[in-house]
Amino acid sequence: MAEFENVNIAKAANVFFDGNITSRSIEFKDGTRKTLGIMLPGEYELNTVNKEIMDIQTGELEVMLPAEDWMEVKAPGSFEIPANSKFKLRVKSLVDYCCSFIK
């Protein structure tokens, strides 16, 4: 899906790691939520509350999910992150992503 229709978009950006990761939250009429964002090259550790599906639109990164080894993900690609977990990223080039939150 190249675009989303009939959504609410937060004006304020979510800014992490001194602006190296930014996103905007969008909410659908059924209450589901996604973020659309950019990650600059670097290494990061993040955590989740809900299960997440990360779709990589452009760019390349490596991800280390809980109890797994580093895995390379290139656009177009995706990976799932379990709920209530920490994961690590090595972003190799500018990454454009869409993150879906699964309750």
From TrEMBL:
**Alphabetized GO MF terms:** guanosine phosphorylase activity; purine-nucleoside phosphorylase activity; thymidine phosphorylase activity; uridine phosphorylase activity
Q: Which InterPro entries match?
A: Ppnp, RmlC-like_jellyroll, RmlC_Cupin_sf
Catalysed transformations (reactions): adenosine + phosphate = alpha-D-ribose 1-phosphate + adenine; thymidine + phosphate = 2-deoxy-alpha-D-ribose 1-phosphate + thymine; inosine + phosphate = alpha-D-ribose 1-phosphate + hypoxanthine; guanosine + phosphate = alpha-D-ribose 1-phosphate + guanine
One Pfam entry for this protein is Ppnp
> Which keywords describe this protein according to UniProt?
Glycosyltransferase, Transferase
Q: Which GO terms describe its cellular component?
A: cytosol
The record's section on Gene3D superfamilies has: Jelly Rolls
- What EC number is given for this enzyme? 2.4.2.1, 2.4.2.2
**Which major enzyme category is it?**
transferase
This chain's function reads: Catalyzes the phosphorolysis of diverse nucleosides, yielding D-ribose 1-phosphate and the respective free bases. Can use uridine, adenosine, guanosine, cytidine, thymidine, inosine and xanthosine as substrates. Also catalyzes the reverse reactions.
The UniProt family comment states: Belongs to the nucleoside phosphorylase PpnP family.
* HAMAP family recorded: Nucleos_phosphorylase_PpnP (MF_01537)
Write the protein's name: Pyrimidine/purine nucleoside phosphorylase
- Gene name of this polypeptide: ppnP
